[in-house]
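Quick bug: Chitosanase output formatted oddly.
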Amino acid sequence: MKTTGRIAAALLTCAALFTTTVGTASAANLDEPRLKDIAMQIVSSAENSSTNWRAQFGYIEDIDDGRGYTAGIIGFCSGTGDMLDLVELYKAKKPGNVLEKYLPALRRVNGTDSHSGLDPNYTRDWKTAAKDSVFKAAQESERDRVYFNPAVKQGKADGVRALGQFAYYDAIVVHGDGGDKTSFSNIRKRALGKAKPPSQGGNETTWLNAFMDARVWAMKQEAAHEDVSRIETAQRVWLKAGNFDLKSPLKWKVYGDSFTIS
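Here's what came back:
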């Protein structure tokens, strides 16, 4: 009986290990090339009303959200520092480029919504720079360094799959990860007051609902972000369907527009 018990226990342990290994191997992560492209399409649908994110390198306008100019594939802003970092990187990679002369002005307007020193030709020169493969590569590099990689890293640490990692990514894109109450880290902290992530023994659905609730709260703190459809009619729809791996086809609505990825 003792020997049989040990064998049975060993078999159960092996079965559990096999299931865990298979589950881990099949779990989808957002940094897989196909899913990363999907993530970019979804973000672009909200930021640019188009899933064609590669057409957005030259996008630039002031959307009156207090952040100055918003531009490029991820919404780099003249008032939040990430546009300044991008143009500095562009200078390092290609000295003498068309945007380099705006660096003093970008340093001055950082933290404000001012266009001082940028108008009237900055938008024109941004669009010119956007035709340069070096500038496009710089935009993708800064997107990954500042937004995408930190989101995926935290998502993996929390034990969430592609959907959760995307929810984190979208939050960092919109709110950044500074010290203010609506930053990504503080959104996550608010969610931790309601639930635990899978890495801490929590249920993935419960945790992501808590995170999305906290994200909705953060969105509503600013008039420019009071429309929460990018959560409620996109991310929450996939969560309710149990689509943790962001398997296509994907259908969603954001800001009144409908989108599909086959």
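Actually, after a second look the formatting is fine. The chain has ten helices and five strands. Closing.
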